[in-house]
Specification:
By secondary structure, this protein is mainly β. A hairpin with a 4-residue loop joins strand 8 and strand 9. The longest helix has 9 residues. The two termini are about 20 Å apart.
């Protein structure tokens, strides 16, 4: 089931619980779409931890969106947006994954952007591959290249290189 958090206008996340499932293509299904439309938010603050299950038995990660930096630089005619994530292995098996591929940024027009391991002005990025034993954690940025005039709507994260059925989402609009 998809899990959703939101950034408040003051920049803090508040728990909104399970609002709906996201399809594998990243399209919002009706319950989640309605929740995203109803939740007001703004980028910048620190926040909520969303527990996510992976596809393997015992694979579980607590993901926290701690900060959104916009802009975090520029690339050609586009701007860079960086989101800082804290990943904590709360499962019973080692977690090994590519966090940039697991993260997506949705704009207000419904376009979906996959995370990059590219450095930005925001700070150190998460490594290409993260390996965490149970109880271990790591924090770093995932960077997105978006059109200069794009409005930010949401950040999504799913285990298994973004293909996991359990998708965390934080509303930014």
């Amino acid at each position: 089931m998809g899990r959703t958090g939101r950034l408040s206008r003051t920049g803090h996340l508040s728990r909104t619980g399970r609002l709906g499932r996201l399809s594998r293509r990243g399209r919002l299904l009706p319950g989640t779409l309605l929740a995203v439309l109803l939740l007001g938010a703004g980028p910048g603050g620190s926040g909520e931890t969303v527990p996510l299950d992976g596809n393997r038995p015992g694979e579980r990660l607590d993901v926290t969106l701690t900060r959104v930096v916009d802009p975090a630089g520029s690339a050609g005619g586009d701007r860079l947006v960086a989101v800082e994530l804290r990943l904590e292995n709360t499962g019973s098996v080692p977690y090994r994954d590519a966090p940039a591929a697991a993260a997506h940024l949705l704009d207000s027009q419904g376009q979906r952007f996959t995370g990059l391991t590219q450095e930005s002005r925001a700070g150190a990025g998460l490594p290409d591959t993260v390996s965490l034993d149970p109880g271990a954690e790591v924090t770093g940025f995932v960077t997105f290249r978006v059109p200069r005039d794009a409005g930010l709507a949401a950040v999504q994260f799913a285990l298994d290189a973004g293909l996991g059925d359990d998708v965390g989402q934080w509303s930014l609009s």
